[in-house]
Structures are given as structure tokens and as C-alpha cells.
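Let us work through a complete example step by step.
Step 1: write down the sequence.
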Amino acid sequence: MSVDTAILRRIQLRAGYGNAVYVFIVLLRLISSDARAQSFPDENPSDGTVPEQMSSSQNSATNNDWLHIWLRKVDKARASQPHFVSPIVTTHTMLVQQFRYDMSWQQDPVAVTTANYGASRGLEIIPTTHFEVGLFPPNYLVRQRNVPDGFGDFSFQVQFRAASATEGQGDYFIGLFLGGSLPTGRPPNGLGHSVLSPTLGVGKGFGPWAIQNTIGANLPVTGANLLGRAIVFNTAVDYRIKGRLWPMIEQNSTFWSGGVSDGKKQVFLTPGLVIGPFPVVGRLGFAVGGGVQIAVTQFHLYNHRWILSLRFPF
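Step 2: predict the structure and record it as C-alpha cells.
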């Protein structure tokens, strides 16, 4: 790899995530400012000349702006469902509002490592009490062999909360999800075709234990003869310790029909641990998780995929 090529790749990587990071910082600044105002509701000018009626009307106007209205919807949604932690690989079976950035390092069958920065994670928001929308910028793949590095595909997900109950009231969640990806990256880093992924998610809590299950399909809009259609089944079991430590184990299974992997299946076991969330400022929190996918079937596209997950709920 030439020096000029290496520099160009660094520039592409920074440019690709620059906009996403900028939007995230602006959003957190708004929320942090809002939280600071809520933390000091009686803060007035030092001369104390602001009339109490005017101050009350200003607070009322502030509490009814779009940001406060939206955040109240987020709190209502969170109060209507269990408080599970998002697994490492399995799609979370609850509505979540956070910014998430994952990184992973995996080995292909010939023991060549590929680094994945972004890992199709990103901004997840709760616009209404029954919906979550996820927008995930293209990940960036760095390979240690004669394959070009580059950006993957843009992906998205919409989650609908069909039914749920909090702890002590049933402690369950049932949801319908629709995800997908758009071919923004060039093969082999991108798929080269659009894919839709309908999924059913079910979660149930048993005291400190929680089980989250998803079953769905990856359905190419085009290129099914190459990519094939896949059934994806995931289960995550975690144990809550003091509300801050979440050891877990996951199984991640994929079954193909059609395409180059027709009739094959791969299954991973993924032990992991999530720590947090911890308060940062106002509504903003921070959690970190990690795990490793270990192949337990003879056929597998990769193995020993180490994952680092950074989460910022707000």
C-alpha cells in the first residue's frame, strides 16, 4: 500500500463519520443544556428583579417546546416496557434511545483479520411512544490482505412496540421490526444490493434474568441468486447485577436458502458483558460492552469476532 493511498483512506474514514459525529454532538449539547436548565429550575438573574409570574410563564413555555415534548414521549415509552440491556449482537427487544458505536475484529477461514469500525450501529431515537427509528451510517472495513478497504452499506431499522409491560406487571416485550440496507458501499465491503429484514422480537424478564429472542429474514430486493435468502435466529440471556453489570450469553444462527451459501448454516456462541449505564450529564449516560463470537458449526464465514460496544443513552 502506497503512502498516498493510506492517506486517502484516512481522509475518507474521517469524512464519512464527520457528519454523524457532528449531529450527535449537537444533539447532546441540546439535551445537556436542557437537562442543566431542569436541574436549576429556580436559577434567576442575580438582581432578583424577574417577576415570579413572568418566570413561571417562561418555564411553562420552555417545557412545552418541541424538545421537552419529545423527551416526555421518550420517558413515557421507557416507563411502559421492561428495562433490559441491549445485547452485544442480538437486536434489543425494547425501544431504545441512544447513540451506539461498535467496533469488531474477526478472522476469516484463512486466519486473516478484518477490522470493522461502526459495525452498522449508530443513532437510535424514539419519536413516538410505540416506535423506534435507527439510522446507521456506513461502517468502514480495514482488511489485512489484498482486498481494498472501504465503506460498507447504509442501514436502518424501525421498531414497533406491539405489547409490553414493566417489571412487576409481566416484564415482557413483543415487537415487530423492519430493517434494511442500501447499497452505498462497493463490493466486497458493501453487498451491492438492497436488503430488507423483517423481524419479530420477544423479550421476557424473570427477576434479574432476561431472555431476548429475535427471528427474522434477510431478503434481498435484487441479487437473491447471489446473496441468497437467510433466516436469522438470535437468543440472548443476561443477568442483572446491581443494575450496572450485565453478563450474558448469546447464540446467533443464520440459515441460507439459495445463493452461494445455499443449504448451509452457521451458529455462534457469544459470551459478553455490558457495564453501565452511568450518568454523565443531565439525561446523557454511558455504557460499554464487549464480547466474542465463537463459531460452533463447521461452516462459518468468520470466527473469533471480538466486539467492543460504546453506548450513550439519552
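Step 3: interpret the result. The chain is about 20% helix and 45% strand.
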